Amino acid sequence: MATLTIRFPDVLKDKMKACADEMGLSLNSLVLVATDAYLRGRTSEKVDDVKESLKPESSPPVAAKKPERPIPKVGRNDPCPCGSGKKYKKCHGA
User: To the nearest 10°, the Cα dihedral for 66, 70, 71, 73?
Assistant: First the structure.
């Protein structure tokens, strides 16, 4: 996400703060909603619509997938899978 800095004249900034306070929004949220409405061609929205558009979209929780073992577990007394001929416990199981 890119950062954008906008400088407003003090008179306009005071009016925007008052409008944001009246709607129960932060100044940044008000600017974001106003810019979005302008770009989408909307001219007016209800306060509830504005607040609803600011809520983060919730996605359904993703179930944790259990990792699958591609190779069966080697027992300590089984031959080592590296091919050395030694028992696993004496080779790579130490």
Answer: 0
